[in-house]
Amino acid sequence: MTLPRPHRIDLLIAASGFFGGLLLWWFGLYVTGDHVVDQRWATLVPLTVMSGAEVLRRTAPRTALLAGTLAIVADQFTNGSLATVLMFTDVVYAAVVYGQPASARRIPYTTGLITVGCTVVLLIWWQNAFALLVGVLTGMISFLPAVTGAVVRNHRNAADAARLRAEQTALLAEMDRAQAVVAERARVARELHDMVANHLSAIAIHSTAALSLDEPATTRQALTVIRENSVAGLTEMRRLIGLLRDSDGEREPGAVPSLDAVDTLLARARTNGAAGGLDFVLEDTRPAGGALPAPVELAAYRIVQESLTNAVKHASPGTVRVRIGLAGGVLTVAVDSPYGERTGPAAPGTGSGLVGMRERTELLGGDFRAAASGAVWQVRAVLPADEEAGNA
């Protein structure tokens, strides 16, 4: 197995320790005069091994600690070098800071037991206070660096955990912001479509009729309808722009459309759909005085509005029936329009209206369906009308 490339700081530490120990050896500055090996050069062997351990202190801390331990033990049989002792303390520290979590947990306990054991054995053997001094020195070169490394590692782990939590919090906040932006854009798109599309559809149909039929009366009637829808569409557009610009909430929001204004929608649809041979009928079976949550009432109003717009654009001649009912805490909206070949002018569709109606219904936890059944195009929306739906 190939070891990772040593860190340049580790190389610098190793070189500094080695040349520092070499300088001490040159001037004959040793740790102790008691030695087993008489040769003067023997002090350089543990020094060289310890310097090699320093090279591996970050990339292979376990190997470095093993080699450093052997070197410090061997150093006790020579004259001893202060540089070897100091580098050993750094090797112990690095083994805790950069080693595996299990090793980092064991080393402080192991060095602590070694310190206590060494002190007790020397007390029994020597039976004097010098044994305590040796025990303190043993703790200083083994236990103290290990404890310092454990403290540093714990602080680093805590800092990394805090940084990770901060990054995760920022990521979640960004995701929430992105979702809020997407939801707001979808809401604005639905409002824009429902408020303006019906007016533009009527303008497109009647302008086509005015261009196709060379009759002054028909042209005048078409232009009248075009003007009415242009003014109404412009008013709706200005109201929506005002709501979008009113981001500080200082102004009062515009009035929210309600089902009480469905008659106005049908009257406008009769005017716009007259050229296509359409008639519109309303059947409202809701009990008198029955209050609905504002989101539910707005959704139902927009569904009726979009259904009437689609009927004006696509329905074949006949009667469009709008039914609204409230029973058991459930509001039902049903729109039936003739489905088949259209003889009069038509306006192109994009399908976004059906998507908007489905989104409005699903946001309130309701059920939506739009499909052809024989010669009738059926739109059905079932909306929960309780307080929980109003808070959705």
Write the layout of secondary structure elements.
Layout: H1 8-26, H2 44-55, H3 61-75, H4 82-98, H5 101-126, H6 130-212, H7 216-245, H8 262-273, E1 278-284, H9 294-314, E2 318-327, E3 330-338, H10 352-363, E4 367-373, E5 376-384, H11 387-390
Parallel strand pairs: 1-2
Antiparallel strand pairs: 2-3, 3-5, 4-5
Helix pairs in contact: 1-2, 1-4, 2-3, 2-4, 3-4, 4-5, 4-6, 5-6, 6-7, 6-9, 6-10, 8-9, 9-10
Number of helical regions = 11
What is the end-to-end distance?
Answer: 61 Å
Assign the structural class, choosing from mainly alpha, mainly beta, alpha/beta, alpha+beta, or little secondary structure.
Answer: alpha+beta
- Strand order within the widest beta sheet: 1-2-3-5-4
Which percent band covers the strand fraction?
5-15%
> Nearest-angstrom radius of gyration?
43 Å
Total domains, how many? 2
Report the major sheet: 5 strands, mixed
On the 0-100 scale, what is the average pLDDT?
A: 83
Number of DSSP-assigned strands: 5
Could you list some keywords that capture this structure?
5 strands; Heat Shock Protein 90; 2 domains; alpha+beta; 64% helix; five-stranded mixed sheet; 392 residues; 11 helices
Overview of the molecule:
The chain is 64% helix and 11% strand. The chain is an alpha+beta fold and 392 residues long. It folds into two domains: 8-170, no CATH class; 257-392, Histidine kinase-like ATPase, C-terminal domain (Heat Shock Protein 90, 2-Layer Sandwich). The chain has a five-stranded mixed beta sheet with strand order 1-2-3-5-4, with helices on one face. The two termini are 61 Å apart.
